[in-house]
């Protein structure tokens, strides 16, 4: 690993953990957000400043306008939204590559725990054909070197007319996670396969995101 990469990972840990400066955060040791251990440790110590602890209003408002359809949630964390969908009868799969996150999600979902899987989004083959991929703090959790892979994967999983919709963190962030993305970057990332059909402000942005989230809806072309 290069010295720059080491520095970036250290900066990333500080950027995320600064939102929760308790004694548990001070004792965290893992530095690479591309490793599941980074996220496992934060769930183990309850250092999860990205966790709203409920279903976001913007999500519920968006879903209420759609007919139930298959949904995939990558980087699902505690998966409150998956619980909401499953209770409402939607076909849904929620995945995370952190075993600790998956355990937290399964506890949250109770009788619907089976919709949560331990998996790597970049190689995962869902048992359903998603019509909506829900983005919530996943793109901003992965290093920007993986963003082109993310764009290719969502394009491969969605059919024409399918939706990539959710929360996107706009504006570059020193270090990270969260890794914010400039508007020109995100447009260039998705333009080859998607059309932006909605761009709305977010009212419930957590401090770790600094009020820079937007609800974006991209339609697969």
From TrEMBL:
Residues 18-27 have a biased composition (Polar residues). Residues 1-16 have a biased composition (Basic and acidic residues). Transmembrane segments: none annotated. InterPro entries: SAM-dependent_MTases_sf, TPMT. One of its GO terms (biological process) is methylation. Gene3D superfamilies: Vaccinia Virus protein VP39. One of its GO terms (molecular function) is S-adenosylmethionine-dependent methyltransferase activity. PROSITE patterns: SAM_MT_TPMT. Keywords: Methyltransferase, Phosphoprotein, S-adenosyl-L-methionine, Transferase. Residues 1-27 are annotated as: Disordered. It comes from the Bacteria. The keyword Oxidoreductase does not apply. PANTHER family: CYSTEINE SULFINATE DESULFINASE_CYSTEINE DESULFURASE AND RELATED ENZYMES, PTHR32183. This is SAM-dependent methyltransferases.
């Amino acid at each position: 690993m290069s010295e720059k990469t080491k520095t970036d990972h250290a900066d990333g840990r500080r950027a995320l953990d600064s939102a929760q400066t308790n004694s548990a955060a001070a004792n965290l040791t893992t530095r690479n957000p591309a490793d599941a251990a980074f996220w496992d440790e934060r769930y183990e110590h309850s250092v999860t400043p990205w966790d709203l602890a409920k279903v976001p209003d913007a999500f519920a408002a968006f879903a209420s306008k759609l007919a139930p359809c298959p949904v995939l949630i990558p980087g699902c964390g505690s998966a409150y939204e998956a619980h909401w969908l499953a209770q409402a009868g939607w076909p849904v799969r929620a995945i995370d590559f952190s075993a600790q996150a998956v355990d937290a999600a399964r506890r949250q979902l109770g009788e619907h725990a089976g919709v949560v899987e331990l998996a790597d989004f970049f190689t995962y083959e869902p048992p359903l054909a998603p019509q909506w991929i829900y983005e919530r703090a996943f793109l901003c959790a992965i290093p920007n070197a993986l963003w082109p892979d993310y764009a290719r994967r969502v394009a491969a999983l969605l059919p024409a007319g399918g939706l990539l919709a959710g929360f996107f963190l706009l504006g570059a962030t020193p270090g990270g996670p969260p890794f914010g993305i400039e508007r020109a970057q995100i447009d260039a990332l998705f333009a080859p396969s998607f059309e932006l059909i909605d761009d709305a402000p977010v009212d419930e942005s957590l401090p770790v995101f600094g009020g820079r989230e937007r609800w974006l809806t991209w339609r697969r072309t």
